[in-house]
Every structure is written in structure tokens, then in C-alpha cells.
């Protein structure tokens, strides 16, 4: 069983259980589109597929 990060412990103190995410992914840099908005497709590609 994986050890829960400190963030989960903190969130449990202040949020209802249904609002606590099952997984937290740490991101070093948020990819942006040419227009300066978050590039959701690139974000999914890089971080949800195991970068």
C-alpha cells in the first residue's frame, strides 16, 4: 500500500471525503498554448500517461 502524502492528511482535516482526490500529480511546469492558455491535451499527454 502506498503511503499517503502529507497533502492528503491536510485535505482530510478541511474537506469532506468526497472532495479529496484519489491521486495527486506534482507538475513542474504547466504547458501553455500559443495563446497563453493551459494546454490541456499536452498536460494529459505528459502527466497522465506517465511522464
Automatic annotation (TrEMBL):
Keywords: Ligase. GO terms for molecular function: ligase activity. The keyword Ligase applies. It comes from the Bacteria. This is Acyl-CoA synthetase (AMP-forming)/AMP-acid ligase II. It comes from Cytobacillus purgationiresistens.
